[in-house]
Amino acid sequence: MGVPVQGCAELKTKALAAEPQVAAGSLSSEKNAGLFHAKTAITAPAVVAGLGATMNRTMSWSTDPMPEGITLDALLENVQWDREAKYWGGVAAKVTDKGAVSWAGGARDSGHKVYDALNNPDTDTGMQIRGRF
Questions:
Q1: For residue 33, what is the enclosing H or E element?
Q2: Mean pLDDT confidence for 104-131
């Protein structure tokens, strides 16, 4: 993706660019497919799991709702979705001895780490996925 700061609005823009037949602002499976085709971190099972659990907090029936005044857009605004070790190493990906990034860990192994990083922006991992080192 190559854009340094990407929140929900930027992801929507990238998805629409990847799937031009989708009308602007519409939430559809075609647009979401654009995010997967772009090969962002969202394609990793652990990130899907953590993001899904985070989105669950916005549902009216959630037993762990978002804090008052915090929106999903605001929470995800500065998350770096590029598939780079500096953002996701130790959270949803592993860095090999040669410096390559492995996304082999599954949702069970790393999903909670992603959830914690997404929902706690001021923790070490929360700052890491947002590019604040």
A1: helix 29-37
A2: 93
Of the pLDDT bands very low, low, confident and very high (cuts 50, 70, 90), residue 43 is confident
β-partners of residue 101 are 95
Q: Distances in Å between the alpha carbon of 94 and those of 33, 36, 90?
A: 25, 20, 6
Q: What is the pTM of this model?
A: 0.72
- 89 φ/ψ angles, rounded to the nearest 5 degrees: -60, 130
User: For residue 106, what are its two tokens?
Assistant: 């599954």
Tally of CB atoms within 10 A around 37? 12
Q: How far is CA 123 from CA 17, 87, 118, 120, in A?
A: 33, 13, 10, 6
Give yes or no for residue 18 having a pLDDT over 50.
no
| Contact of 73 with 8, CB cutoff 8 Å | yes
Cβ pair 57, 65 in contact under 8 A: yes
Tokens of 74: 């605001």
* pLDDT value at 44 more than 80: yes
